[in-house]
Amino acid sequence: MDAISKLQKKNDESKRQAGKDKLDFIVFALILSPLLFSYAYGLYFWLNGQEVELEQFWIAIGTAGFGLPASFLLSFQMFKPAIKLLLLFICMAWFSYFWVVAYLSWYAFIPLIALYVLLLLNRQAIAKKLNNDAGI
């Protein structure tokens, strides 16, 4: 009977880890979405015979400079994973539009400020949760 309970415990942990891996993949895909959007945007204009100048290097730097801090700031928030993904999707859509299409870099980074303010407002609850998780 002990072997069956150990096997069930391992199975439950495996399912939990698979869910985390799936969530991590979705977050990674959302972080790369502005870069992929820029490729699609450039392809669309190329197929229509128009010329659009996109600096892929700067778009990649901006994507990393926005996506990584955004995912970091959201990882500490006390929301359900679905809400975190929705917020990350909204932030990345905002960034993609203003960074790739409108070329308004200052407007593109506004969601980072909002996420940081949200982190500051919830810092006591977040610190309490982190201390409880660490056993302090």
Describe the 3D structure.
The protein has about 140 residues and is mainly alpha-helical. About 85% of the residues lie in helices and about 0% in strands. The chain is flat and about 70 Å long.
Helix content: over 70%
Beta-sheet strand percentage?
A: under 5%
Number of helical elements: 6
Order of helices and strands: HHHHHH
General form: flat
Mean pLDDT: 89
The beta-strand count equals 0
What value does the Rg take, in angstroms?
Answer: 20 Å
State the separation between the terminal residues, measured CA to CA: 35 Å
Question: What does the main sheet amount to?
Answer: none
Overall SS class:
mainly alpha
| Residue windows where pLDDT falls under 50 for at least 5 positions | none
Task: Furnish the topology, listing elements before pairings.
Elements: H1 2-47, H2 56-75, H3 81-101, H4 105-108, H5 110-121, H6 123-134
Helix pairs in contact: 1-2, 1-3, 2-3, 2-5
Name the descriptors:
mainly alpha; 136 residues
Task: Summarize this entry quickly.
With 136 residues, the protein is an all-alpha fold. The protein has helices at 2-47, 56-75, 81-101, 105-108, 110-121, 123-134.
